[in-house]
Structures are given as structure tokens and as C-alpha cells.
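Hey team,

Filing this mostly as a record. A colleague (T.K.) asked me to run one chain through the structure pipeline before their review meeting, and I want the input and output archived in the tracker in case anyone asks later how it was produced. No errors, nothing strange. Just documentation.

Input sequence:
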Amino acid sequence: MERTNQFVGQSLAFLDAVERASRAAPLNRPVLVIGERGTGKELIAERLHHLSSRWAGPW
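Output structure:
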């Protein structure tokens, strides 16, 4: 399933989380994404994967 890089909404908290994920993606370290149900954790995880050096590997 291919998703676009566009997000619905403009929550400053979510956009901050996306920015942090973008900065963490190039690091070769594990990242734990936590949050309540329905908060977009899978979007953050997907962004981390696609911006990391492992993007060509399995999701």
C-alpha cells in the first residue's frame, strides 16, 4: 500500500512529531513511537522508515 506524504490537518503537535521523526530517521538507532490509539503512530513509523537508510528494505 503506497501512501502519499501529505497529512490531513495542521496540528502543531503532530507536525512537531513529524519534524522530529524526520531528524531521527538518518540515525542508526532504534526509535520507540508511543501514543494513544488513533494518534498517527503508524504515519511516524512509516516516515522514519522511508527517510532512513533502510528504506529499500521491508517495512
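Quick notes for T.K.: The mean pLDDT is 85. The longest helix spans residues 12-24.
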